Amino acid sequence: MADNKTQSGLPPYARALGIVISDNSGPAPVIEMPFNDKVQGRPGYLHGGAISGLLEMAAVAAIHKALAERSSDASIKQVNVTVDFMRGGLTKTTYAAGHVVRMGRTMANVEALAWQDDREKPISRAQMHYLITTQ
Fold this sequence. Notes:
The chain has 2 helices and 6 strands, in the order αββαββββ. By secondary structure, it is an alpha+beta fold. A hairpin with an 8-residue loop joins strand 5 (107-115) and strand 6.
């Protein structure tokens, strides 16, 4: 991961959870959420809402990067989200990355994946659809 972590471009909700962009060099930004009391669910595990929020922020970061590559000043609105919880998230740093599957003029389809120690062993994944609006 890169040493220069930033919250630039992320919504206020990301700041509330302590989410930062840890690597923006690849095609999909990698974001991380360090463990803290705000994201704890039952003892020893992350709250499902915090994991869902992390996945949403990963999708938002991926769409913003794709829009920037198009030199677009469009805004996005979430249409729907489906989250699959695959294993319990433990009380440690969690990473996520979004991938824009398809971006048209008015809609974007995005997948996001969250993991902790090993990207090949995800704790959750999401499929999201966003409306793209021009201002």
